[in-house]
Amino acid sequence: MAATEPIRDKKELKKLAVYFLNKGQLRNYALIIMGTCTALRISDLLRLKWSDVYDEEKQTFCTHITITEQKTGKSKMIALNQQIRGILAQCYLRRRGDYIFANNRKEPKAISRVQAWRIIHTAVVTLGILGKISCHSLRKTFGYHAVKSGKVSLAVIVDIYNHSSYEITKRYLGITQDERDEAYLGIQLF
Description:
Blueprint: H1 10-22, H2 26-38, H3 42-46, H4 50-53, E1 54-55, E2 60-61, E3 64-68, E4 75-79, H5 82-92, H6 113-127, H7 135-149, H8 154-161, H9 166-173, H10 175-186
Antiparallel strand pairs: 1-2, 3-4
């Protein structure tokens, strides 16, 4: 099986998010925004409940969430940016059950990883977005654009992803090949 890729073109990323917004599918729009802006694995993202992001007592959205990663068992604190809190506020008004990413059944539970993949895959195919794009692409997209922006060091991304080395993270994000391509294409010798 081929590795998934980050969505390298910000216009394509925005096109993917807006696709769901234009269809009135706030849950799916929130999936793209939160998946990209938190760099969570899809299994951790889908387990999020409203109680994780909303403080009933204060009647406000949290600025940070703390999760225990399903894969690693490590605890992680994640800041929720204004964009995330904004979409959560919209979704909260239409919430169904305890899970942020609830299915549409009579007794709502979190959508499955397979359903999340179908949602993203269908949109990517419909929009003609090229590449090996899947749920995991959202996580990779965060790191790719953070590093490429020059505002976030690779060391911070290594920490966010809980990787053991820079090389693993660079390979994970496809940055190593991008750097090679820039070298080959950027040098004009003749």
